[in-house]
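Data availability excerpt. The first of two example chains:
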Amino acid sequence: MERFFKNAQFDFELRFALGSVYYGGGDVGEILSTAERIKDGDFESWFTEFEATGKRVRAIADEAAARGHDVSAREAYLRASCYLFLSTSALDGTADPGRLLPTWRAHRECFDAFGSRWDPPVEQVEIPYQDTGLKGHFFRAASSNARRPTLILNNGSDGPVTAMWLGGARAALARGYNAMTFDGPGQGEALWEQGLSFRPDWERVIHPVVDFLLERDDVDRDRIAISGASQGGYWVPRAVAFERRIAAAIVDPGVFDVSTAWFEKLPRSMRKLVEEGDRRKFEREFRFAEHFMGKTGRQTLAFRMKPFGCDSPYEVFEAVRAYNLADVVDQIRIPMLIADPEGEQFWPGQSKQLYEALPGTDRTLISFVATEGASLHCEPMARSLFDQRVFDWLDQTLGV
């Protein structure tokens, strides 16, 4: 398929934006006209243009809301939320990354304005977690309190709640499931407002999420499932190795070892320095290597380090080594569906690696290929096909 941008990040982000159209997260004309105004590889241009589109669509939503046109307002608020968040992906490559928090807050305001107009309205919830709380959203399939199967949607390393609405919540509601999203440590509100960072022992996050669901009258306690997107493809298997109250799991893709996406571009000599704990020499060599990384490489590193709560490249390369399923995969006891997209950019081959490592036979590997328009990480432009296969499997697995 012809590329939209030579810059790999821009091209991939735009494909996700176009895929979001299926569930109302954008309009093709709005997205493509914005893309036409962006200078390829220019991070300031990306931010400026998508932020402008987001603000313009938000103004449409505000006017529709003021005139009592709730459906028009709801639809425009969702698109505005997606565009505003999309703009933030480039901010670490600009001269003013400090614009991230106000833009992130604006995107969340738009999403909540959308959710308040959904039928039934989306509930903003808080999940008790350690000495604080994790913010989330609960989507009910219907206004009644009938107990229903419920899908937990576990985001990846950098996506917003809007991504989970488009990446499973909307499809779940259409099939009679409740759904719940949340910002775990290192994600969304937990990162930007609470200062919480990623942790490898994700069962410590999912335990309180399940506790929260089991207290609700509208959740079928025997039919709780969980789906993990992107880096969630590590967190979900890690969590269900310990959390026995979940009945089925979905990962897209399977991620056996998060660190490979970090270490693959490091010279072997520098990898050895991390393994040996030689911080001083690693940082000296890394400072030299940074001169050859280019603007895109430096932007990606800055963007990816923040959720880990690390201040230096050595710290993040050391930290990410703990995100590995080798010691826990044999403890997984529930049915698991693993998506295996052709052309997976970040963890190639790991969906099959996870599939082969799982104990027992209650596991399913589903390929998504380019000839279906479903290739690349998280199948950015094949939302309907992905949801059809996943939810058909989930219906059968849970007996829905």
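And the second chain:
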Amino acid sequence: MQLVFKDPSFSYELLRVLGYAASGGADIGECLSTASRIQEGDFESWYTEWSKTAERVEALAAASLARGSHQSACEAYLRASSYYRSAEFYLHTTPGDERGLPTWEKSRSCFRQALKLLAYPCEEVEIPYEGTTLPGYFYRVDPSPTPRPTLIVHGGYDSTGEELYFMHAFAALQRGYNCLTFEGPGQGSVIRLQHVPFRPDWEAVVAPVVDYLGTQPSVDPDHLALLGVSFGGYLAPRAAAYEHRLTACIAVDGLYSFSESIQRYFPRSFAEPSQTQEQDLEALSLAAAEALMQRSITLRWAITQGLWTFGVPSVYAYMKLTSAYTMEGIAGQITCPTLICDGEHDQFFAGQAKKLYDALTCTKSYHLFSEEEGAGEHCQAGAILRLNQEVFEWLDEVFSQRR
């Protein structure tokens, strides 16, 4: 799908934020007006224009709040949060850009302002984790202690805890589910403030989250699902393979081998390191990465984002580390019902979702979203309502069998 921009990355990121109009994270006119002012392929222009829009909408929110118009203020703060997230998106392609952290902080601040005005009760939580904590938001259908089915949601390679509200938490609340969204290593504030990079054994991350929910009277432990978004399509199934307190797992979209999806862009010698000296591979990987980043905005962003969130000093180190992120020999250990989502035109992980589905031995479902229905992009960007329709109808059916 090409939207305003010819560049696939700019087009996809515009579709991503525009799609949140369905969940209160955008207004269509604001997005299209902003996009019309952005120069094709220009990161600085992208940052400048999204920042201007975010600042203007944040000011609208503050004015509404001062007038006592709480609903209007809530809506505007949510949109401003989403626009600040979009403004920050490409800043990490230039390591050390000092605007990244304050722009992200504005996104988080606006979101937390909105939470105070949200119709549903929501609590900012800190989940104990290996000597520190993981940040999360625990959304509840109502203030009562009535045990309810609960959905845990985490992101992937770049999504923030705030963005997860627009993706799935809003839909969970509308359907009577509590929802806990959280950020783990490599994500959100955990990488930005705590500087903790990704780890492949994601069960060590999810277990403390499940422990926390076990202390909450409003959570039904027999109806507890985990959903992972994008790169989370590897992380969530990996956790489910070892964390058997989960009663369902959803991958949006499924990912079997992260290294496979990355290495297809690099010379074949990386898959056969014994054929080449280590120092040669270091030089080759750097040269290959520089060439790729020159001709593709998507790859420039993906490589620089990976170096940062995986906490590695070189492209070759990153390439080596990704090999640990695979479901080979692990997928068969998942015992809970699992839904694998896929996009007909998934430009990041093409073929990976079906490969993961085929490796599963548990009760499983596979749903391929099509271009014709406007849902064929990675993680069904621009089709959030359609995605959640399938996710929650599947989850309703799975949970109904446990009553």
